[in-house]
Specification:
451 residues, alpha+beta, eight-stranded mixed beta sheet, 11 helices, 25% helix, FAD/NAD-bd_sf, FAD-dependent oxidoreductase domain-containing protein 1, oxidoreductase activity, oxidoreductase, FAD-dep_OxRdtase
């Protein structure tokens, strides 16, 4: 049974030493204590914090004390803002489809959720445009089965034969395509930075506090135990190290949420966590992904969908006519070094461009305009998020491992985890299968729609 925050917190409802009440300027240092510490200030972390405040529902003198800790206040290397900004309904796992459907509704009504009084309306610059998945003869049956599941979940997706595909997109080479699927609604792309800032501003207006720093160590209940091999433990303090300093601030807490994205696995290797209780390890690693932009005036045009090629390469329009962006995940054995965000331009020339030009002959004459690299929080076990309580660290909850889908699933995953924390169960979406049990049992959930 999952303990709720009501079970974890003191009955007095004290605001706590160092806590900054809503409406005042935050302290540059973290407070001495918080009810919930969210490690990671990307869109998933801020979504969790926002939903905790929206759903808390029961009165405490100062409300629920939520602290978001982000190590990179510039977000220069953040997965959220370096993504391609897409949302789609076309997945092969029911939970992923359900999260996409929730998030699409959330984005359509974003000002009802994240609007702040006396501030301008939020415009995430959403561009409607379906995803177009192309399948080879070998993968046609799997794509058709996925579309049937998507329709069963309420998504509007259609199948296109090669003839229909060529009629709809005459600029496309369809020689090796057996079937394609196209999303008719609730798919497209938007500005990730605007969504992140909207979550952050709204959560802050509701009383969430944030600080810049890095959680590098923990103090757990095992520090106070006589037993040499306890079966479980609780985190008592997180140590937040200040930027460009040897100082750290211990923060007493009732709950810790691991929303550290690509570094979520590394967080569970931090000092102070009992190694025996951190098994199995959280299989989330940073995987570097490149995004390239190019110009091609005689390309597909502004009606081009978000195309996922049979080869794994993808592309979509990018702003003004004739501009596009795209990329491709490499095979496992060719993963680039994730130690920095440098771009390998040869990867585009040698691997991506030939695939693009084969699918769209007009792309033979494209001119590369720019590039960047970002991180997937890649779950090496099954490329799906790990949501929910840790099996042995009783008050540690995970919200990471989305493997490239964190931006689009953040509104849904944040609400789900907040429900679990506050009410002890999922209510809006049943995401129990995305918990730790599948890691313990060695039973991966296969998602075929990882791009």
């Amino acid at each position: 049974m999952v303990q709720t925050l009501r079970d974890q917190l003191p009955a007095s409802g004290s605001g706590g030493r160092g806590w900054v009440p809503p409406g005042t300027h935050p302290d540059p240092r973290p407070p001495d204590e918080a009810d919930v510490v969210v490690v990671g200030g990307g869109v998933v972390g801020w979504s969790v914090a926002y939903w905790l405040k929206v759903l808390e529902g029961w009165r405490r003198r100062h409300g629920l004390r939520v602290l978001v800790v982000e190590r990179d206040p510039t977000y220069s290397g953040a997965s959220t803002v370096l993504s391609a900004g897409g949302i789609r309904q076309q997945f092969s796992l029911p939970e992923n489809i359900q999260m996409s459907r929730f998030s699409a509704s959330f984005l359509r009504n974003i000002n009802e959720y994240l609007g702040v009084p006396n501030e301008p309306p939020i415009d995430i610059q959403f561009r409607p445009g379906g995803y177009l998945f192309l399948a080879s003869p070998q993968n046609a049956a799997a794509l058709e089965a996925a579309v049937q599941l998507q329709r069963d979940e309420g998504a509007q997706v259609t199948l296109l034969s090669p003839t229909q595909l060529k009629e709809k997109y005459p600029w496309m080479n369809t020689e090796d395509v057996a079937v394609a699927s196209y999303g008719l609604e609730d798919e497209g792309w938007f500005d990730p930075w605007t969504l992140l800032n909207a979550f952050r501003r709204k959560a802050t207006s509701l009383g969430v506090q944030s600080c810049s720093g890095e959680v590098r160590a923990f103090v757990t209940s095992t520090n106070y135990m006589m037993a040499s091999a306890p079966a479980s433990a609780r985190i008592k303090y997180v140590h937040v190290h200040m930027p460009d300093s040897l100082e750290y601030q211990p923060v007493a807490c009732a709950i810790v949420v691991n929303a550290a994205g690509a570094w979520a696995g590394k967080l569970l290797e931090a000092e102070g966590l009992p190694r025996g209780l951190c098994q199995p390890p959280l299989p989330i690693q940073p995987r570097k992904r490149y995004v390239f932009t190019w110009h091609c005036p005689n390309g597909p045009g502004s009606s081009c969908p978000f195309v996922i090629d049979t080869s794994g390469a993808y592309f979509r329009p990018d702003g003004a006519a004739g501009n596009y962006l795209g990329g491709m995940s490499p095979p496992e054995e060719e993963e680039p070094d994730p130690s920095d965000l440098s771009v390998d331009h040869n990867y585009f020339q040698e691997q991506i461009w030939p695939r693009l030009a084969r699918r769209v002959p007009a792309f033979e004459s494209l001119k590369v305009r720019g590039s960047w690299a970002g991180y997937y929080d890649y779950n090496t076990f099954d490329q799906n998020p790990v949501l929910g309580p840790h099996p042995r660290l009783e008050n540690l909850f995970s919200a990471a491992g989305f493997s490239g889908h964190g931006l689009q699933h953040a509104p849904a995953a944040g609400r789900a985890l907040a429900e679990l924390l506050l009410r002890g169960r999922y209510e809006t979406l049943d995401l129990r299968r995305l918990g730790w049990d599948r890691l313990l049992g060695g039973e991966p959930l296969q998602e075929l729609g990882v791009v």
